[in-house]
User: Which sequence fits this backbone?
């Protein structure tokens, strides 16, 4: 039996032959969502339980084989697929999709890591409760992937990112041991916080197999509005006003640049855009504990005050759930519209909200000077100081050529500006392979040394998602 044959046999012993894929079209597991990284797996293994995950990890350890944990494969930084060597095993968690239980009085829910985010939201809603994590990929991304990337999304302003929504984890370690940390406790100061080590570790420290998540009461009413805004400074002014007037009722504050919405008009002309084009358009969402009438009255008063102060030039309040869904659909169609337009250079950055206007003005100008005619797809979670500041080739230039020739120089301009404003080169998507080299340039040597020490302690042989986040060779 060949070396690989021995491993494949051990894997089939662990999960059953039907769940070890070695032949046929495996591209769904090998190629990333943006089609930037094309890998080749030795095998794709689909365990159905935590015990099976542990058995797979032990088999790989015995054969000295590296593992790449994978959820929905919607990650955007080149971390969820195998490399091109054909020597890595993809550990796909998709079959682990059980809701293990809901404790309504404790406002918690325990799920398998392979549960799709939307299914988790729906299971909570079926009990009259809310799991607030929400992002455009929610129909296919998984809770394990959300936690491994510490996903953000559209509700961070009010509820925090995935880290803040998780109370406990179950993890299979690099040795194939199971750590049961599935606690529903909101207070537990018993030494180092192991849970928080695994959250955001992008599959490099352990395999998340289960999680206990925080739930919230469903709001009585959710209202949505669009506002046309003359400048980024006005958008930040509107955010301050909305926070002052709505307090924790403000659950979403998304900004969309005119070029980004123009791409949606071009690629999805069937989607209604209720406001005429403006330099910036803001989507506001309010969740109200009282009633729809109360929510609408608060919203209208806010928008009138904003109009009087010149912070907005026009607004439209959704009059029904359908209209509200349409407004969100507009926002969530931007990533798809830009991918239909062609590859662009993505930056998922954060700076303090107060510094966003200066960041955008300075960076737009520097890019236009260096690359005349460059097109900027700006949108994002302004309430969190997080912009998706994406740079598209000038009209007429092939996207692939632009990426090949200009990506380094574009990144240097954008990331220098981010750092000058005290920001982060990765607000929510993570590091993966895409930003690994940039991380080394931008993170302090002390921080990098501590990160390497953690990796060395938890995965000394470097078999979990090697070469992602940190260069391990
Ligand atoms: C259209 C679109 C919109 C998006 N919008 C947002 C957004 O608003 N906010 C945001 O934060 N992200 C966003 N993303 C990025 C992506 O959806 C998130 O990173 C998501 O959390 C990834 O989940 P996944 O299950 O697809 O993970 P994958 O892509 O499969 O994996 C991502 C990383 O997690 C690791 N991983 C996966 N499962 C496990 C596990 N069980 N144990 C350990 N490691 C694991 C992988 O090894 C990899 O490093 C978007 C993506 C798309 C395509």
Assistant:
């Amino acid at each position: 039996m060949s070396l690989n044959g021995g491993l494949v046999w051990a894997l089939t012993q662990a999960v059953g032959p039907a769940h070890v894929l070695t032949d046929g079209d495996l591209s769904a597991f090998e190629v990333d969502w943006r089609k930037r990284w094309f890998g080749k797996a030795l095998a794709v293994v689909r365990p159905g339980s935590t015990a099976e995950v542990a058995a797979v990890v032990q088999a790989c350890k015995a054969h000295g084989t590296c593992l790449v944990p994978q959820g929905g494969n919607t990650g955007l930084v080149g971390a969820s697929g195998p490399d091109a060597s054909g020597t890595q095993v993809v550990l796909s968690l998709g079959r682990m999709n059980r809701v293990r239980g809901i404790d309504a009085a404790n406002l918690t829910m325990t799920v398998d890591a392979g549960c799709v985010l939307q299914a988790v939201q729906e299971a909570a809603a079926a009990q009259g409760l809310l799991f607030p994590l929400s992002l455009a990929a929610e129909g296919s991304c998984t809770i394990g992937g959300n936690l491994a990337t510490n996903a953000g999304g559209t509700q961070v302003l009010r509820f925090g990112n995935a880290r803040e929504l998780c109370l406990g984890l179950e993890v299979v370690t690099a040795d194939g041991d199971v750590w049961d940390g599935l606690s529903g406790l909101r207070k537990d100061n018993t030494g180092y916080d192991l849970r928080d080590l695994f959250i955001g570790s992008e599959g490099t420290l352990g395999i998340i197999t289960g999680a206990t998540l925080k739930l919230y009461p469903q709001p009585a009413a959710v209202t949505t509005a669009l506002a046309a805004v003359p400048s980024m400074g006005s958008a930040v002014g509107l955010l301050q006003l909305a926070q002052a007037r709505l307090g924790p009722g403000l659950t979403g504050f998304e900004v969309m640049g005119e070029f980004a919405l123009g791409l949606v008009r071009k690629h999805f002309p069937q989607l209604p855009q209720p406001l005429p084009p403006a330099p910036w358009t803001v989507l506001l969402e309010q969740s109200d504990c009282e009633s729809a009438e109360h929510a609408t009255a608060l919203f209208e008063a806010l928008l009138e005050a904003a109009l009087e102060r010149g912070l907005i030039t026009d607004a439209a309040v959704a009059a029904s759930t359908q209209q509200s869904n349409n407004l969100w659909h507009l926002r969530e169609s931007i990533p798809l519209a830009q991918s239909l337009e062609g590859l662009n250079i993505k930056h998922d950055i954060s700076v303090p909200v107060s510094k966003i206007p200066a960041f955008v003005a300075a960076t737009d100008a520097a890019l236009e000077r260096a690359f005349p005619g460059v097109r900027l797809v700006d949108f994002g979670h302004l309430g969190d100081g997080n912009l998706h500041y994406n740079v598209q080739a000038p009209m007429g230039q092939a996207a692939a050529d632009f990426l090949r020739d200009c990506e380094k120089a574009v990144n240097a301009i954008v990331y220098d500006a981010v750092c000058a404003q005290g920001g982060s080169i990765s607000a929510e998507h993570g590091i993966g392979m895409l930003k690994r080299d940039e991380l080394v340039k931008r993170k302090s040597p002390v921080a990098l040394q501590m990160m390497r020490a953690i990796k060395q302690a938890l995965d000394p042989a470097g078999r979990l998602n090697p070469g992602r986040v940190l260069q391990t060779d």
The pocket of flavin-adenine dinucleotide is lined by residues 33, 68-76, 79-80, 93, 113, 135-137, 141-142, 144-146, 148-149, 151-153, 202-203, 207-208, 335, 428-429, 465, 468 (CB under 6 Å). The chain has a mean pLDDT of 95. The CA atoms of residues 22 and 43 lie 5 Å apart. The two ends are 29 Å apart (CA to CA).
